[in-house]
Hints:
This protein is α+β, with helices and mostly antiparallel strands.
Amino acid sequence: xxxxxxxxxxxxxxxxxxxxxxxxxxxxxxxxxxxxxxxxxxxxxxxxxxxxxxxxxxxxxxxxxxxxxxxxxxxxxxxxxxxxxxxxxxxxxxxxxxxxxxxxxxxxxxxxxxxxxxxxxxxxxxxxxxxxxxxxxxxxxxxxxxxxxxxxxxxxxxxxxxxxxxxxxxxxxxxxxxxxxxxxxxxxxxxxxxxxxxxxxxxxxxxxxxxxxxxxxxxxxxxxxxxxxxxxxxxxxxxxxxxxxxxxxxxxxxxxxxxxxxxxxxxxxxxxxxxxxxxxxxxxxxxxxxxxxxxx
Length: 296
């Protein structure tokens, strides 16, 4: 194994440490955040105090059980046979504009502190070895050791059970990931680009075991949609940009981590002359990686 290969592996392993550090931070405010989430349910949804705990728990359980998905544009993703074995993040692909990458880097630094800018104190101080590894591989600015694999991939929770997936602005077809990926993920109550507009954006990041932050900070219309979905009611009229973003701090291997592929029949219908080529690439991908294919 070369030194470069070893560093790539260590960087991908270090990616999970971002989720671990967020879990430490959430733990310090978990009790108060949970209480505030319950107060918000009472205030915004007019839930009586005697019922709020049950309602809160049902909403948290619904979030935990929601499908974790990655929306994509069918024509773009399957325009040719898919190379590689895993989902790539924007740093791996290196195809986005400099302006986009600058903003994305700023957001990820605000939320996950790769450069250790947001230093803790006392019991909040993370282990030195952890921050050293994250800074070594995760800090991007003028860093020759930066490894794209340490930064997250992005998806969303399909909390509203939408047929076209949770983040339809990125395409109406989507991958559904296996449930264990949620355990190495963090969640934000909307598009994380909004993190640049909020001073307390890092306090809004949740994880699988502490979903109360989503309830506390999501838009009110999303809160109402979540409440409806948790009771089994159909959710309609939810704007395309109303989604719970997921940051995946782990590799997503096609053959190991994708539960099923959900393909939009509308996407198929507008392929035109590309229909046979795209469908061939899609079916080859499904067969190669043994992933169930569903049309909707």
